[in-house]
Amino acid sequence: MTRVYDRPTDLIGQEGTKLGPTDWLAIEQERVDGFADVTGDHQWIHVDVDRAKDGPFGGTIAHGYLTMSLANYFLPRLIEVRGFAHAVNVGADRLRFLNPVKVGSRIRATGEIVSIEDIKGAIQSVVRVTIEIEGQTKPACVLDTISRYFPKV
Predict the structure, then answer these.
(1) Which end of the chain is more exposed for a tag (fewer CB within 10 A), N or C?
(2) CA 122, CA 90: separation in Å to the nearest integer?
(3) Do residues 109 and 131 lie in contact, with contact meaning Cβ atoms separated by under 8 Å?
(4) Model-level pTM?
(5) Residue 110: which of 23, 33, 29, 34 has the closest Cα?
């Protein structure tokens, strides 16, 4: 279930709030191949289904950066902030790839609000996103996303 905040200032004091989990998302070869095409990363462990069967993972795996980029898919399903003029992604900290995502598996995300601060006329949030793999105890990826919400003038 998505946690909704009516205004960016409503985030103040929400550190430690748990978010999610989201619904599961299937990771299919078509998504991996599309990511390879837009990034130019056609390493065989991602795109060569036949060769990857005999590789270290027993099949193709998603790119780590594809898994990370799906934080952008999951984040609005974890938290929705309303009542701002505009918002920007500032970046990410503490990115870790902990477990490969095999093609055909399903992933989802949980989150936690790590910090909230008033900075440069905006409310800045740091949300730790943990991308889990169905049936695995170790997550695929963990990163701290940084967003800024600018007030309406």
Answers:
(1) C
(2) 12
(3) yes
(4) 0.95
(5) 23
